[in-house]
TrEMBL record:
Coiled coil: none annotated. It comes from Actinomadura vinacea. This is Histidine kinase/HSP90-like ATPase domain-containing protein. The lineage of its organism: Bacteria, Bacillati, Actinomycetota, Actinomycetes, Streptosporangiales. It comes from the Bacteria. Residues 26-126 form the Histidine kinase/HSP90-like ATPase domain. Keywords: Kinase, Serine/threonine-protein kinase, Transferase.
Length: 252
């Protein structure tokens, strides 16, 4: 396990890496249940989280053996909190099977594993998937992250200190670099930093991470460090995939 549950309200995350075998769903249930209990979630919300993560881990296990390497057949569980646009706990299961797209199917709600991603949608405030990169592999593995979000408990610690943009920039730079992205960082006299990765410029200003996304901007509070890092990885990987697809020769 990487990280401590007590760090999650302050921009941290808890991370695990499991073998993508028949036991990974139980390991994911146990890990998430323990973290949610330590964070003060109500028992019924813990039950919802445990059931949802069991479905995601089971899906990852069912695709085991299709990856090109043993490292890609490992499953990772990531848990962090975000404050924008809502106060939510984000739970993500990563696997190395980017070509296998999660697809909701009808299932029995009372089944131990949920039988279909429909149960995840019924239990969570939101869920989805996107191309991503491993966080715990010795060398970054390309794959996908399937995630869901749950509302945070009514009583949630609120950091009282102001986060310095320079510190936030250093942390984001480190997180992106650990995912195998080439990153640079520069700062000016005002304290504003710019992190560049794969032609994407991320401005780190008092209060916010921000970058262009089409005609607008994506913005994340500095406290949402983990959410910002995953969003950057998602955009970089999606842009790379789009570029590769557009570069393929047309047939016919």
């Amino acid at each position: 396990m990487g990280g401590k549950p007590s760090d999650i309200p302050f921009g941290g995350a808890c991370l695990w890496r499991f073998a993508g075998d028949a036991c990974c769903a139980k390991r994911a249930r146990d890990a998430l249940g323990s973290v949610m209990a330590q964070l003060g979630f109500a028992p019924d919300m813990i039950d919802s989280g445990v059931l949802a993560v069991s479905e995601l881990a089971t899906n990852s296990h069912q695709h085991a053996g299709r990856a090109a390497s043993a490292s890609a057949d490992m499953v990772e569980l990531w848990v962090w909190a975000r404050t924008h646009p809502r106060l939510e706990l984000v739970v993500a299961v990563f696997d190395g099977h980017r070509d296998v797209v999660p697809c909701p199917t009808p299932g029995d709600v009372l089944d131990e594993h949920g039988k279909g991603l429909g149960i995840v949608g019924a239990l969570a405030t939101a869920w989805g998937w996107h191309p991503s990169r491993s966080r715990l592999a010795a060398r970054p593995v390309l794959g996908k992250a399937t995630w869901f979000a749950l509302p945070l408990p009514p009583v949630w610690p609120v950091p009282r200190r102001v986060i310095a943009p320079s510190v936030a920039a250093e942390r984001l730079h480190s997180l992106l670099g650990s995912r195998g992205l080439a990153v640079t960082r520069r700062s000016d006299a005002t304290g504003i930093s710019v992190i560049t990765s794969c032609a994407l410029d991320i401005w780190v200003t008092p209060g916010w991470f921000a970058w262009r996304n089409g005609s607008g901007y994506d913005r994340h509070p500095l406290l949402d460090l983990q959410e910002a890092a995953e969003s950057v990885v998602r955009k970089v990987e999606a842009d790379a995939r789009s570029l590769a697809t557009s570069s393929e020769p047309r047939r016919g």
